[in-house]
Specification:
The protein is mostly helical. It has three helices and no strands. It is rod-shaped. The termini are far apart.
Length: 182
């Protein structure tokens, strides 16, 4: 009977293993499929982040190009403004000469005109310094937002220098008008 019991046990074990083995194979298949899906997700995520980074870099480059064009236009305008201020100073100087020939006292306006000319020279120097500084800022390699802010700060300094030169010319004209009334 022992042999019969052993055979019965073996049959029962075989039946059990026949049901268990396919279940473990199916589980293994599911795990491999899950692993493949997970790897595919990781690959897609890596590709997406790489594309996203390339897109950001392209946007950053176009921003830098636009910033360079912006400051180029503004610096051109500021250069023209300083040239215009110089011409106005020359015209005021010639007017002062004419008024002096007529006998008008132009000592105070001449002093103010000299001050204005120095401020115009300072404004021209500020424009040149700003060109150099802005070129350094553009070549520094920072991100577009900080570059733009730094350029804006430099341009505001130049703008203020031009405004100071202009107000000095206005002071000359204001000082000259009471002499004309006499």
């Amino acid at each position: 009977m022992n042999i019969k019991k052993i055979i019965n046990y073996l049959v029962v074990l075989l039946v059990l293993f026949s049901f268990i083995a396919p279940a473990t194979r199916a589980e293994e298949a599911r795990n491999t499929i899950r692993q493949r899906v997970e790897e595919e997700r990781e690959n897609i995520a890596e590709k997406f982040t790489a594309q996203k980074e390339q897109f950001r870099q392209r946007i950053e480059e176009t921003r830098k190009i636009r910033i360079r064009a912006y400051w180029g236009r503004i610096m051109g305008r500021m250069g023209i403004a300083t040239t215009r201020l110089e011409r106005i100073a020359d015209r005021i100087s010639s007017r002062l000469d004419k008024f002096q020939e007529k006998g008008v006292d132009v000592t105070n306006p001449r002093e103010l005109l000299e001050t204005a000319k120095t401020k115009i020279t300072d404004a021209k120097a500020a424009v040149e310094n700003a060109k150099n500084k802005i070129e350094e800022i553009m070549n520094s390699g920072g991100d577009a937002k900080t570059i733009f802010q730094q350029i804006k700060d430099e341009l505001s300094k130049v703008k203020q220098a031009i405004k100071d030169a202009h107000s000095a010319l206005v002071d000359v004209i204001v000082a000259l008008k009471p002499g004309l009334i006499k």
